[in-house]
Amino acid sequence: MNNEKKFKIIITDPVDAILLEKLREKDFSVDYYPKISEEDLLNIINQYNGIVVRSRTKVTKDLIDRGKELKFVARAGVGLDGIDLNSLQDRKISIIHAPEASTSSVAELTFALMLGSCRRLPELAAATKLGNFSKEVGTEISGKTFGLIGFGRIGYKVAEIARAFDMSILAYDVITNDRINKVSGQYVALDDLVQNSDFIGVFVTIKPGDKPILGKREFSLSRKKPGIINTSRAAAIDGPSLLEALKTGTTSFYASDVMWNEPPKTEWEHELLSLPQVIITPHIGAQTREAQARIAEATAARIIEMFGGVR
Questions:
Q1: What pLDDT is stored for residue 3 in this prediction?
Q2: Which pLDDT score is estimated for 207?
Q3: Could you tell me the residue range of the domain that residue 211 belongs to?
Q4: Active-site pick, 123, 262, 290, 305
């Protein structure tokens, strides 16, 4: 088979090498441009039958319109943010992603953020490097109540880990399942979760235009001054209301892997980042060697399954 007839794929963000290897083994023609600019991509997308992206590359209507030969868009990761799903549907272009591959990595980061906040690890470690060895009192998570907003794959994995810390589990989700019984948890209304949780974890998907799940009203209901951990989507929380809750002490801390704008653009985002009780990591939930390998394997397998190796 000559190169002109090969199914051509472009990968526009950094991925594990196994993704390229698996596709090339099946005789797909793969170009790897992990730092390609938006302008350059727009100029060459018409050459390709498929594109693999992560969060850096935005699959816009313009890109889709120019990709006259596109048969699929693959997101080597979990969420589909930054991909114009309506335009893909209009063109009958397939969407492929690997939502389960980074579950463990995101769940582990959730606890790293929670424990780091409770023991004030970032600020105390920084102080120690400057020669300040003063001891500060932290908070234990063992025996506390963890309220989980969203009880899908990641919420359930987080609950499993939480049980090892002897935490009680409350969950709120629009879709319920029997796995809550495996972690001795219970489903409750959102208001009840906010009122009775020592910590609140956010594990949801949010579509453009959706209202935040946690806003001014919800923060006003909290009784225990909960710490909030968000490893899903910043838009699930109303940012200015969160800032006010942190400043007034209604919420004890905010630890998150996501921002409303990355990097931040608004005045209130910069103020939020300046607060000592806030930890923000740069969207690293899936950034482990193990997760990247699983994502690469799963993405390649789904491309191959959908479009059949082309040997």
A1: 44
A2: 80
A3: 103-280
A4: 262
3-state secondary structure of 53: strand
Query: Residue 242 and residue 218: Cα distance in Å, rounded?
Result: 10
Which one of the listed residues 91, 179, 283, 302 is annotated catalytic? 283
pLDDT at 148 over 90: yes
Residue 179 among the catalytic residues: no
pLDDT tens track for 104-134: 999 999 999 999 999 999 999 999 999 999 8
172 and 223: one domain?
A: yes
| pLDDT at residue 80, as a whole number | 83
| 45 within 8 A of 10, measured Cβ to Cβ | yes
- Known catalytic membership, residue 262: yes
CATH number, domain of 235, equals: 3.40.50.720
Residue 285 lies in a domain: no
Contact yes or no for 227/253 (Cβ under 8 A):
yes
> What 8-state DSSP symbol labels residue 7?
P
Partnered with residue 113 across adjacent β-strands are: none
The average pLDDT across 153-159 equals 97
Based on the residue annotation, tell me whether 38 is a catalytic residue of this protein: no
